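Fold these two proteins, one after the other.
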Amino acid sequence: MGRKWNNIKEKKAIKDANTSRIYAKFGVEIYVAAKQGEPDPESNQALKFVLERAKTYNVPKHIIDRAIEKAKGGSDENYDELRYEGFGPNGSMIIVDALTNNVNRTASEVRAAFGKNGGNMGVSGSVAYMFDKTAVIGIEGKTAEEALEILMEADLDVRDILEEDEGVIIYAEPDQFHAVQEAFKNAGVTEFTVAELTMLPQNEITLPPEAQAQFEKLINALEDLDDVQRVYHNVDLGE
């Protein structure tokens, strides 16, 4: 595969720069997942996934508990899951996932962010076909060879295993997310540096400096929207 996980590292950087906003977004995501099924991660796979992801961002327990209690309390607040697709400078491709209780507001804000920052909205399907939904799991303290051995013992055949930074990144099929985590937990791994279901571009592009600066403004504008949960793109922003 050989892909970098820049999108995920960008999320970490955003989290460090604006923890309160990221935590608020997690609160909505946890509430929605808890309301979709039982508010118990052992019987609600969607909730279990969100909580595993929240751990990698160090989301405080009180935010998690408050969101789950809100779902248990039968709140009638409903959110729609929306996906927008569009283009940035030099043919760059962008996917925006949102959770909103006001579809018109969110659509208007996303369209404005694109329009004011050198981008334009596309129709549904215009971009997503160039991305693959992928489970990405990160661990530390293991080599790629050791990680492969653990996965083989669990009878798991994943897409790719790469040594990056000070750890190992495993790329797997989306339905392998929990199985991969369980394999490493059984091998003594207690923390994950990454635990994401993400959209990885099939091909990354590099932008010239001016276009990249414009592109980063567009991504930041989208990320700053309260209803936007995640933004995926096909630009290699470097280290």
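Now the second one:
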Amino acid sequence: MKFLQRERAALEEAMPGLDQQLADHSLMDLERAGGPGLAAFTEAGGPALLVPAEHGGSGASLLTAVRVQRAIGARSPSLAVATTMHHFSVASLVEAAAMTNGLEWMLLAAIAKDRLLLASGFAEGRTGQGILSPNLTARTEGEKVWLSGSKKPCSLARSMNLLTASVALPGPDGTPQLAIALIPAEAPGVSVRPFWGSPILAGAESDEVVLEDVEVPAELLVRTGVTNDGRLDHLQTVGFVWFELLMTASYLGAASALVERTLANTKVDAAVRAEAATALEAAVLAVEGLAASTEPIGQDALASALICRYAAQDAINRVLGLTIEALGGMAFISSADIAYLNSACRALAFHPPSRARMAAPLVDALAGDPLRIP
């Protein structure tokens, strides 16, 4: 049971050679804006991870995906965060396409074949709010659709091939109908503005994507047939469970980089090394247990995913305290890696929904009420 062996084996099987390529670069090189990580991920076939096998992808399970993201996060937190947003978009598209009988699977096949990177213009999760709806407005004339608005921060803003976004369009009877738009990055009216001012996770390219009256080609508009009812919430719930577990695994990977350094340092007391590894692995096992569940994804799974995520935040904070003190001042002074990982790991708390915001809804859900994300 070598530390990270299982995760790196999963990454090697899914994207041969990527782990070694990342290991050949310094952490600071991988984490800078424009670093080599995204190109290596794309070249290794990473965009196809969640595309079903019958459409040319790897068809990875949620369990495999969380192991892959942890392995990537241990090499490059920025790459793990950025690619989580790609996988979230693909998972949402797979779920939406399963509700239709159209040609949407051709889009998934293109993602796998052409190794396309998808940025997410979805807003993360408000049950009953429309669905994953960012600050975009739609203008329609017959079958033609134009979108305007912006998404910030938007990971993969500068490397994306497509921006995915949800829009509400008039259905056949006039009622709102969910559609998922795939917008080419080179489409007229699409631009990127600087937004991310921190050096932490700069490699995730989380800038602002702006749409100014961008026409969406009919073949890149997936009309799901889902209206503003319970099925709408189901589509959002599935995507949100994937998002929470993959993002949590990514940050557990970043914390794993510190634990790995601590385990390798024989000057650190064995009890401290074991405590750090145990705290981290317990959080990992919780995430993997939910990811491996065969129960259909629904409200209970979403509540469990949030509980796993908040428990992981606590575990990461504990691990940071143990490892940074154990590695010592000279390790902190001699390399930027320790301070960088300390800051990067804490960013899990910034992803929505916050722990404070979800406290009352989780208490209500544990009492048997439907889970709501305010």
